[in-house]
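can u pls check wat happens w/ pyrazine-2-carboxylic acid
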Amino acid sequence: MKTTAMSLDERVLLIIDVQNDFCPGGALAVPQGDEVVPVINRLSEQFAHVILTQDWHCPGHWSFASSHPGKQPLQVIDLAYGPQVLWPDHCVRGSRGAEFHSDLHVERAELILRKGYRREIDSYSAFFENDRRTPTGLAGYLRERGLSRLFLVGLATDYCVKYSALDARRLGFEVTVIEEACRGLDVQGSLAAAWAEMLAAGVTQA
Ligand code: VGL
Ligand code: ZN
């Protein structure tokens, strides 16, 4: 069967986790996280294809420090799949904190991909959960639609954007991360380390 991609434009803007809890005043605020909103709104006008991701945790999610008695946010614990940073409760499904920033233009998004909804496993990446093996389905979606050139923006540069970019490279997509449309958490130098890792993996910094 010939599976010609019908998309004339193989470029897609992948907007990562621009949600209230990652913006100032939110439960896991990324410094200046809200500043990406107007930048992303402008960018999305230039794309025929736009996809949003949404961190979407169940109450009591294991990535929450509150799910582990005696543990504090930013401590690291060992889960079955390896080390996991613990976070404040955030992006609980259906909560206001899990909603997209109210100024973000979401109308043109063709797909909203939710991730992190399984209690025992976190999902930074838009492609794989934190075991780096359980797929979210996004790679298949992009391939089936012939969307091969990914432009990543959103929050946080050093967690969900980075993991998404690295997985996308590993899966063979062309990846550009647009720096002015991202902000990082920068936990102990994690922002500089994230850029180094992304560049080493063949990500283009724009
Ligand atoms: C994120 C930490 C926990 C992110 C999500 O969107 O970067 N970071 N959950
Ligand atoms: Zn999360």
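Residues 55, 57, 63, 90-91, 116 surround zinc ion (ligand 2) (CB under 6 Å).
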